[in-house]
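Changelog-adjacent note: as of this version, every example in the card shows the full chain rather than a window. The one below runs 205 residues end to end.
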Amino acid sequence: MKINAILTSFVGILARLAMTLFLIIMCFKLTVAAYNFGYRVFSEPPISKSNGVSITVDIPTGSSAYNIGKILKNRGLIRDEKLFYIQERLSAYHGKLLPGKYTFQTTMTADDMMKIMAGEGEIAADSAKEGNSESSPESEGDSKTEAAAEEVVESSGGNAGNEAVQIMGDSGDESVPAEGEEYSGEEAGTGEESGTGGEEEGGGY
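Full-length structure tokens:
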């Protein structure tokens, strides 16, 4: 009887020790997992450290952060949609992710992609530049039209001036020669003859 009691108590002690050891191991594993998960929330590395690949994703309207995480994971841009969900909840972009078509690099972190989907990233800025470049041909066309109009006005003004000078020359007003022209020999001779006639008349008196 005493032997059975001793064995029973010994087995009970071993069972309690095993249970305690199991709980310690489980707590240790949970602590390590929690630490790693928390560390990944704020410092999860990108899929590729170098030589990234461009991947286009389409985010439907009304997608939640968790659904966006699933889309990104399926496209090979992140490792864990649950982690992405926590990152979005703790980030400055919570509730700001917009639907649309995006092109991401595998060298981007989740924070980089959230920044772009919130309309604050480099791709958004590039899109705005592309929009301005698309409208630039119209502005260039307007400037070309204005320049052509100015040339027409200038050429019309020059022709009008030349025509005015030509009309004045044709009207017989010899006292006003066209700009850049000189009196012809006949006009000079006529002037000399009139001067000579005036002297003779003066001598007759």
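Structural remarks: The first strand starts at residue 54 and ends at 59.
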